[in-house]
């Protein structure tokens, strides 16, 4: 790939992040600013980011991952957004993406296909949880290993990225698949398996891009659902806490 194509690819990936953060930023940025991750886990990950190894990093096998506890996740629909303008050097850039969040609204994982005119398509997976950087990521499609990859970049509060070549064969598999599982090892050396449903992927990928107003409405409904889930989770926690009974007054001993 020559310097011009490399620069175009970098602009496309930067725009992909900008499109997603501009559209979903109300929830994602707000969550990053108001929800403090435990012990600021992303910061050390950024400091330890290694050079990509010659071979794919080791990753947990499917049986190990199946035994790990699964969080309750809320998914955004697969959505296609496109843009063309000065930011993209007047080239069309389309991003097909989905996200998974906790009931609190905290982003957990995101997957996207970035298709920039004149550049190779990229599948980017972003993990927004504290992870062992040296372990990399492992992708499974309907339980079968798809690819393994190193983390290319980690940044505080933005997560760790792994990029994969999204050729026609990979896209075709995703269209036919039911679930894309993203696996990693967290900082507690526990295997994390995060499934992303693929039921809406083909329709989003082959269909027209979503109208910006429709996208804003989609994000508004998502935010309402997240707020509702967060309130339900808060009430559950309160109901599980034992009520603090007032201590009985001390009785003086009998003479």
SSE inventory with pairings:
Layout: H1 3-34, H2 42-47, H3 62-66, E1 73-75, E2 79-83, E3 93-102, E4 107-116, E5 122-127, E6 137-141, E7 144-149, E8 153-155, E9 159-165, H4 168-176, E10 179-185, E11 191-197, H5 201-206, H6 212-240
Structure description:
The chain contains six helices and eleven strands. It is 34% helix and 27% strand. It has 255 residues and is α+β, with helices and mostly antiparallel strands. Helix 1 (3-34) packs parallel to helix 6 (212-240). The model is unreliable at 11-68 (pLDDT under 50). The strands form two sheets. Strands 1, 2, 3, 4, 5, 8 and 9 form a seven-stranded antiparallel β-sheet that branches. Strands 7-6-10-11 form a four-stranded antiparallel β-sheet. The protein has one domain (3-228): Sandwich (Immunoglobulin-like), CATH 2.60.40. The protein has helices spanning 3-34, 42-47, 62-66, 168-176, 201-206, 212-240, and strands spanning 73-75, 79-83, 93-102, 107-116, 122-127, 137-141, 144-149, 153-155, 159-165, 179-185, 191-197.
């Amino acid at each position: 790939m020559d310097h011009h194509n490399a620069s175009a690819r970098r602009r496309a990936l930067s725009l992909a992040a900008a499109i997603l953060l501009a559209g979903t930023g109300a929830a994602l940025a707000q969550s990053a600013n108001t929800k403090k991750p435990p012990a600021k886990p992303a910061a050390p990950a950024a400091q330890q980011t290694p050079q990509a190894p010659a071979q794919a990093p080791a990753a947990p096998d499917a049986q190990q991952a199946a035994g790990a506890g699964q969080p309750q996740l809320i998914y955004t629909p697969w959505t296609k957004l496109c843009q063309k303008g000065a930011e993209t050097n007047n080239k069309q850039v389309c991003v097909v993406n989905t996200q998974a969040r906790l009931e609190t609204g905290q982003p957990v994982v995101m997957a996207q296909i970035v298709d920039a005119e004149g550049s190779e398509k990229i599948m980017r997976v972003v993990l927004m949880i504290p992870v062992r950087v040296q372990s990399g990521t492992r992708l499974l499609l309907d339980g079968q290993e798809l690819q393994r990859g190193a983390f290319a970049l980690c940044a505080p509060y933005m997560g760790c990225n792994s990029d994969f070549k999204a050729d026609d064969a990979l896209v075709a598999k995703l269209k036919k698949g039911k679930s894309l599982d993203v696996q990693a090892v967290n900082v507690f050396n526990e295997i994390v398996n995060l499934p992303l449903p693929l039921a809406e992927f083909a329709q989003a990928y082959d269909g027209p891009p979503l109208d910006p107003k429709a996208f804003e409405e989609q994000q508004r409904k998502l935010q309402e659902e997240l707020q509702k889930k967060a309130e339900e989770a808060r009430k559950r926690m309160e109901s599980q806490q034992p009520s603090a009974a007032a201590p009985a007054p001390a009785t003086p001993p009998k003479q």
